[in-house]
Amino acid sequence: MPANAKTGVASGKRKRKCQSVVIPEQQQIFRGLVFFFFPNNDVSPLRRLRIQRAQDYGASWERTWGNNVTHVIVDKGLTFQDVLKHLGQETFPASIALVNESYPSECVKFRSVLSAMQSRFRVNGMAAPKAKETSPVDEPSSTASLAVKPARKEQRHQTPSESSGSQHAEELPEQEIGKSAKETEAARETGRERDALDDMIEEAKAVNHLPLEPFDSHDEDTTAEVSENEASDTSESRHAEKKRRVLDKEDKAADAWQQKFTCMQKHDSKSNADNPNNRTIAVLQQMLDYYSRTDDHWRTIAYRKAISALRRQSKKIATRSQALAIPGIGQRLADKIEEIVFTNRLRRLENANATPEDHILQLFLGVYGAGITQASRWLAQGYKSLEDLRAKAPLSQQQRVGVDHYYDFSQRIPRREVEAHGTIVRTAVQKADPEMQVIIGGSYRRGASDSGDVDLVITKPGAKIEYIRTMMIETVVPGLFRQGFLQASLANTSLRDGSKWHGASKLPGGRLWRRIDLLFVPDAEIGAALIYFTGNDIFNRSMRLLASKKGMRLNQRGLYTDVLRGPQRANLGAGRLVEGHDERRIFEILGVPWRPPEHRIC
Ligand code: TTP
Ligand code: MG
C-alpha cells in the first residue's frame, strides 16, 4: 500500500505552500490531541490542507505510530482492513479514535471536538457500534453529553438552580474514550444523555454566522415589519435582523422571505437549488454584501463574477486549483473558496468589521428600527454620528425615538426591573380582565440576571386572538399610556394579524426608557409561542431544524405535520396542526426530553 513507503515522511516534492493561519488559542479545539493520518503523509494536496488546518487548530501531527496517538484520520478511499493491515494488528486499540477524513473539518465547523462514535465519521469497513440506543433522528449519536454551553454573555446570569444538574454527574462509560477532555467535562456538567436536539443545536450554532436557511427563517423574518426601503435587504446583520423580526407568520410572508433567499442563491432553474457550491456561495455573498455596503466596486465585481461562475458549476469546487481552473476566479478568491469549503467559514468575514466605516455602520444599526439598508444609506449620505442623524437626517418618528433613546435602549435591564415592568402590565391587564395572564418571556424566562428588553406574553385560557388583541389595543395599552408607563409605540401597524406590539416603557420615578414587546397569544397557541418567545434564537432554530428533519414544521403558532417540502426545505404546504397549546407536548412529539427554559441557552 502506498502509505507504507512514505509513512511519516513529509513529501519534499513540488507542492503548493499551504499557509498556516493563526487561530486564537481559545479556538484551538484540537489542543492536546495527537493526530495520525492514514496515509500519514502530505503528498495529496487535500490531505496536506487537512493536516495543516488540524495543526492550526492545535493538533500535533504524529509521524510515527505510538501510544500517544489520540485520533487516526483515514482517507475516504481506504478501509478499516487497510488500516489494520498497515499496522500489522488484528484489532484496533479501543483507546484511539478512528475516524474518516471529514472528522477534522466537521469539528472545526462545529467548533468543538465531536464524538468520534458518530456514524458519519465511520471508516469504511468498520462495524457499527453495538446496542446503543439510537437517537430519534436520522443518525445514531453518541450517548455522551456534549453540554449545551451557555453563551458567554449569559454564563454569569444563571440562577443557582441551573447548575444543579452537575450534582448527578457520573463518570463516562469506558467506551467513550477517544473523545476530548472538553466533551467529557461537558457531559459531567449536565449529567444528561446527549440527544437529537443537541445535534441540532450544534448545527444551528455552526451556521449562525451565515445567511439564514429557509427552514430557520423563523417566519418572523419577513418583510412585514420592515420599512419599505429595508425590504430588499439580503445581508444579515444580527442586529438588524433582530430589529426586523416580526410575528406575522402568514405563509405568504414566509414565502416572500423564501423568495428573497432564493433570489440570493440562484438565478435560473430549479437545478441550482441543489448546487453543491451553495454554501460557498452564501458565504461569498456575505462578503459581497459587505463590499457593496462599503462601496468597494472592484471587489464587488470580483465577487459577483466568482459567485456567478460558481453557480454554473455542477460539481463541488473544493480546492484552490479547482477554483483557479474556472474562468472568472482569481487567486485570492480561489484561496477563499478553499478556506470556506474546509472550515465552512471565512475569517475575512470576521475581520470585516474593522474599518472606521463599519464602526459607524454598527453604530447606526443600533438605532431601533434601522436595518442594514437604512444604516448603509445614512453612511453613504455622509452621516457619521448620532448627532449628525439627529440634526440633519430626515427621520421617521420611530427612528427619532431610536436615535433619541439610543443610550437608554443599549442598557441592560436588571432582572428586578424587568419584573417591575411585568407587574405594572399585569395589573393593568387583570384590571381589564382578571382571567388574562401575563408571562415574562425572553432572556428573563431563561433565568438571565439582566435583559435587553422586556418580553411579555399576554394570553387567556380559552381565548381567541381577536379578544386578546382588542382588549390590549383598545383598553390596556391606552390605559398604560395614560398612567405614564408607556412612552412610545414603535410597532409598524403592517403586522398582518397585529399579534405583537412594540414600544417603550418607563418605571414611575425611573429615568431610562426600556424596550418592551407585547406578544398577544391565543390559548390554542400558547405552548408554541412560549417556546418561540423564550428562545434563545439558536435554540429556536435548532427546534425548527429538528422538526424540519422529521418532516414537520414548528413556528410560534404550533407544530405541524404532513408538511410538503420543496428544494432546500421550502414549505410548499402548511400541514396539519398537531400541537400548539402544550409546550411540553411539543418536545415529546419531537422525541426529545423536555428542557426547562434555563437550559435553552445555546
Ligand atoms: P429578544 O428579546 O430579542 O431576545 P432575548 O430576550 O432572548 O434576549 P435579550 O436579553 O437581548 O432581550 O427576543 C425574544 C425571543 O424571540 C428570543 O428569546 C427568541 C426569539 N427570537 C428568535 O427566535 N429569533 C431571533 O432572531 C430573535 C432576535 C428572537
Ligand atoms: Mg428580550
TrEMBL record:
InterPro entries: BRCT_dom, BRCT_dom_sf, DNA-dir_DNA_pol_X, DNA_pol-X_BS, DNA_pol_B_palm_palm, DNA_pol_lambd_fingers_domain, DNA_pol_lamdba_lyase_dom_sf, DNA_Pol_thumb_sf
A GO BP annotation: double-strand break repair via nonhomologous end joining
PANTHER family recorded: DNA POLYMERASE LAMBDA (PTHR11276:SF28), DNA POLYMERASE TYPE-X FAMILY MEMBER (PTHR11276)
Annotated GO MF terms: DNA binding; DNA-directed DNA polymerase activity; lyase activity; metal ion binding
Lineage: Eukaryota, Fungi, Dikarya, Ascomycota, Pezizomycotina
Name of the protein this chain belongs to: DNA polymerase
CDD domains given in the database record: NT_POLXc (cd00141)
Catalytic residue list: 336 (nucleophile)
The BRCT domain, residue ranges: 25-121
A Pfam family this chain is assigned to: DNA_pol_B_thumb
Biased composition (Basic and acidic residues): 168-194
Swiss-Prot/TrEMBL catalytic activity: DNA(n) + a 2'-deoxyribonucleoside 5'-triphosphate = DNA(n+1) + diphosphate
SMART domains for the chain: POLXc
EC number(s) per entry: 2.7.7.7
Uppermost EC category: transferase
